[in-house]
Amino acid sequence: MLRGILPLAAIAALGLFDPEAANAEQVALTSTVSVKNELKYLLYTPDGYATSTESYPLVIWLHGGDQGGSDIDKVKSSGIPKLIEDGKKFPFLVFSPQNPSEELLYPIEKVDAALEEVASTYRVDRSRIYVIGFSRGGFGAWALAEQFPDKFAAIVPIAGGGNRHYLNRTNEKAAFWVFHGSNDGVIPLSDSVVLYERLKALDRNARLTVLEGVDHSGVEWATLNDAELWDWLLKQRLEGAPQ
Amino acid sequence: MLRGILPLAAIAALGLFDPEAANAEQVALTSTVSVKNELKYLLYTPDGYATSTESYPLVIWLHGGDQGGSDIDKVKSSGIPKLIEDGKKFPFLVFSPQNPSEELLYPIEKVDAALEEVASTYRVDRSRIYVIGFSRGGFGAWALAEQFPDKFAAIVPIAGGGNRHYLNRTNEKAAFWVFHGSNDGVIPLSDSVVLYERLKALDRNARLTVLEGVDHSGVEWATLNDAELWDWLLKQRLEGAPQ
């Protein structure tokens, strides 16, 4: 017999206690406890943002493993935030969450919640949200593409890896550009190749750039210094994206 | 120059507006918006639970893709919840969250938050929390082992797959028993083999059972009807688990 916990207590209170009530039961419940978020991030706003009324594209930058933890300044030491610190200008917003763990993968539901907060606080063009990630951030980029498929116009995983079985859940309208070095001794090139080939089999808009002779640490800068990446990225647009 | 948004507004309000203030800036912020949870689940309490004061082991059951969605009764149609509905008794609690998506992977941070709610509401032996998952739930089991390594004494992925690069983040004290059918045409056996071999290379307590001639749908029942699994499972204990 299956009974809820409260009805059982009520029966006992009424003196109608049934010896079977101590027996096994399987009940349906709902958890409404929230997942707390305390995600640190850097936010870059471009020249002219403060004085305009326009919406801007937004790039999510997911750093590699070395910048995880609680010291947000570490995030400035690599990738897009480092380029910005060194004076580079971009014509889009950059949202750079810090993985709170130094060891584990990104908590992507928290990253998504923080992204929603940023996208509703700043003037973001919802049809032009892009994710770029390196290494552990590359795994995060693949995971975001699979788990929140309706949000990203383009996904750029650099030296990452992921779950090929769920690539069929990614958005048919999204564009993928995958980068990997041929001499990567940390995450093998084959990880990107498997995912890329699966995307092509699914008839997705996907391209793969293999940087010959480049190792794991080299591929991050080689990719971000490729001017063609930025030209390509800003042309991507997700028609019908949620506003 | 880097400035926070509020100081900039304050400067403007004071009439000290600096033309440079409209320039690009990169600021550090923190997102405190919570991730809402409305995770449905089944909870099984064993014979004697209601009248005892003991703590019990807890099994997390992660169903395969077919039971996802919002109809909680679907979760009763497979796996451990189905065995319970059919009258089988277990000497442990069973927490069976429903994947709210019919297509995507489990939202594992929400699953973890609901697990914490259950473990603090019921009398759960924290050193004996186990996760068993089939197919998409097998992917969930591997993901939980990697992302919440301090919680599970044993992990049993059935016909799943996952991320071999982060297996070094799993708990050295946890035990793994991996099941897969040799005739699986949905998730290939090699997915489990790769993960198992990586665990062995990491010197983890891991075993692999390949069910000869068994296909994807057959491996769920073959595993759950293996009496040795339950004997083995209940012996696993995570010393020093958080209470």
From TrEMBL, chains A, B:
Record-annotated Dienelactone hydrolase domain positions: 110-217
Enzyme class: hydrolase
Record EC number: 3.1.2.-
Gene3D superfamilies: alpha/beta hydrolase
Single annotated GO MF: hydrolase activity
Signal sequence, start to end: 1-24
One family name in Pfam for this protein: DLH
UniProt entry keywords in alphabetical sequence: Hydrolase, Plasmid, Signal
PANTHER family noted in UniProt: BLL1128 PROTEIN (PTHR43037:SF1), UNNAMED PRODUCT-RELATED (PTHR43037)
Name of the protein this chain belongs to: Peptidase
Lineage: Bacteria, Pseudomonadati, Pseudomonadota, Alphaproteobacteria, Hyphomicrobiales
